[in-house]
Amino acid sequence: MKFEDFKSGVYRNQYQYKSFLPSSINREWTWEDPRVNVLLEKATQSLGELNAFSRIVPNVDMFISMHILKEANTSSRIEGTKTEIDEVVMEVDSVVPEKRDDWQEVTNYVQAMNGAIKHLDELPLSLRLIKDTHATLMCNVRGKYKTPGEFRKSQNWIGGSTLADAAFIPPHIDDMQDLLDDFEQFLHHDKVMVPHLIRCAIAHYQFETIHPFLDGNGRIGRLLITLYLVGNGLLLKPTLYLSDFFEKHRGQYYDALTRVRESNDLGHWVRFFLQAVVDTAEKGKVTFDNILILHRSIENDLVKLGRRAENARKLMMHLYRSPVVNIKQVEELLNLNYARANSLVTSLVDMNILRETTGYSRNRIFMFKRYIDTFSE
Q1: Which single residue of 38, 112, 192, 323 could bond 137 by disulfide (Cβ 3.0 to 4.6 Å)?
Q2: pLDDT tens, 158-180?
Q3: What's the chain's average pLDDT?
Q4: Can you tell me the distance from the alpha carbon of 346 to that of 362, in angstroms, rounded to the nearest whole number?
Q5: 345, pLDDT greater than 90
Q6: Phi-psi region of 317 (alpha: psi -120 to 50; beta: other; left: phi over 0)
Q7: Any idea what the CATH number is for the domain that residue 283 is in?
Q8: How many C-beta neighbours within 10 Å does residue 169 have?
Q9: Helix (H) or strand (E) holding 10
Q10: Do 8 and 105 fall within a single domain?
Q11: Collapsing DSSP states into helix, strand and coil, what is residue 152?
Q12: Measured between alpha carbons, how far is residue 92 from residues 46, 99, 266, 281, 369 in Å?
């Protein structure tokens, strides 16, 4: 089907409201718009260049943790959490009480992403994996009573306080299973000749339109983009996340999805999605460049520590994965007594590698701030 001929769906009368029944997506897709071709080429090239960093950066997995953490925080902020990245890297006891619920939501997202990436080695991207990931995402946070890990068995809606004033009402539960089966088949239908990035864009739109969970649909839908790209080999490592682009262009993001449903304009959504891939991949390359520059600078500084340089490097390997530490953790990590651990941390503070964040003389917390800031630029 051509984008230009696409009919997004129909409204069905239910009891006192109309739900939207989207058209199936498991089919061939073509388009006449040359802008899609140009953006698809740019996006594919940008992804390839981003992947190059996964090949050439030593110990690249060491840096992936912060990519995932930033995505978790940004995707959660779209849904209303208020945490900053400086806060989500902390232990929960160090977070002010009024933000601990938000901190937990971000932490759940990290666990959900890590678990899903691991399971891609054993399971294809499937409805089963999606439900398992949702169960992790919603554990003991807002929405924990809204059947985590299970597709909804009642009608939900978007916007407004009730069905009567809702901005959008997704499909009725009687239509959901056929839609979800069609969605899953589209993800893996090799005989449907659709470029992966186009397929990913259409799948994201369809998932958000079906809205199959009572809560957490936005986060799962954005998480699925990275899972699809990794699962199909477009990303060697989970280094590309579109939530930052979607948050910065939140109004345009929602408008582009709505425009498909209201005006059948699938081409506009696909162009928006491909532009998000281009911009995010380009920004990702800059982030990796800055990480490498920082890493080389710190390596040069550590040489000045003489015999303590080896322990300092071991500590830095930990900090690239988890950029906040206290003295007790350094003792345990490096098998040092308090005096030697404290001396090493003090040296790293003096070298502007670590920054003490509490202002206290006891129970101090040290942050690898320059590294965290690399992901905020």
Answers
A1: 112
A2: 998 899 999 999 999 999 999 99
A3: 93
A4: 14
A5: yes
A6: alpha
A7: 1.10.3290.10
A8: 21
A9: strand 9-14
A10: yes
A11: coil
A12: 37, 9, 42, 31, 18
